[in-house]
Amino acid sequence: MNFASDTTAPAHPLVIEAMNRVNTGIAPSYGSDAVTARLRALLANVLETEDFDFWITASGTASNALALSCFCPPTGAVLCHEEAHIERDERGAVEFFSGGGKLRLLPGFGAKIDPQALTAALESNKPDFVHETPMHVLSLTNLTECGMVYRPEEISAYAERAKAAGLWVHVDGARFANAILGTGSMPAAMSWQAGVDVLNLGLTKTGAAGCEIILLFGAAREKFPELKARAKRSGHMPPKMRFLAAQAEAMLTGSLWTKLAGDANRMARRLADGFEAKGFKQAYPCEGNEVFVMLPSEISAKLRAAGAVFYDWPGGSCRLICSWETAETDVDALLAVL
Ligand SMILES: Cc1ncc(COP(=O)(O)O)c(C=O)c1O
Fold this sequence. Notes:
The protein has 2 domains: 12-254, Type I PLP-dependent aspartate aminotransferase-like (Major domain) (Aspartate Aminotransferase, domain 2); 256-337, Aspartate Aminotransferase, domain 1. Helices cover 41% and strands 15% of the residues. It is built from 13 helices and 10 strands. It has a 7-stranded mixed β-sheet with strand order 1-7-6-5-4-2-3, sandwiched between helices. A 3-stranded antiparallel β-sheet has the order 8-10-9, with helices on one face. Strand 5, helix 8 and strand 6 form a beta-alpha-beta unit. The longest helix has 22 residues, at 256-277. The two termini are 12 Å apart. The structure holds pyridoxal-5'-phosphate (PLP).
């Protein structure tokens, strides 16, 4: 009954097998190996485009901070939700990597940026006025930190407005596969086709051991040399890149990543339905692999006493996350205690 986070799950056996398979012989380092080259073709297929560059890191925080630092100068700002992971949970990594860039925070239900707040912020942007900090990037998280999705048409609408104001568009896709499955949309529709310039395609939470892919699309590719230089400088240029690429290859081959995310989403749905059936309200609709439920403290204490693991969340709900390894028996055991 461990619903603490999808990061507590092991890596999928096929990922470990893939790492073992590439663990033979000499291979060029720093991403010049054959596995990383093969991954490019696989990514092109999954994303339905050749117009991209990519880099792999081992953590979502590194991916977000590295990517954003290429688009936000020290004197600029990134527009994001006030509950965004980059704001609440990364210890100022974006500010650190960008050398002082700010985060400008916007409200909105379910950690989705409110469209009117976005419009107001963009209208107030004065890039040439030296006394204010101009915005350079709009960052969206999909799934959001409250487990909700941005649909392709929402991303397009946000991106169009951001671009009209001269901003780049970044997506923190730590749970991108869960969002794809939650919307029933293709990866392309949820990224470059919707105007996303830079995507952190997270695979760790989905079932890899540690593999997050920064993707630069279209015009954003001009930042690729800078991204590599910053990766090197900050210690995110793994010499044995083949082991990270092998993880991605295993996940993206034969749709393993979407199968695993689909399994996690289904378990979250089962949990959410079980809570609803017993009269416990959800704080946010379950649209991926996360459930936020309002539980009286005596009930959450009893669940924990029976062995369930989950977090209290700001706003008064309890957060339960399902992973690729969550079994129906885990969900049903918790609901039985409930
Ligand atoms: C939405 C989101 N983005 C980024 C991250 C950062 O990932 P990592 O813990 O690998 O640095 C997390 C981790 O929980 C996350 O939930």
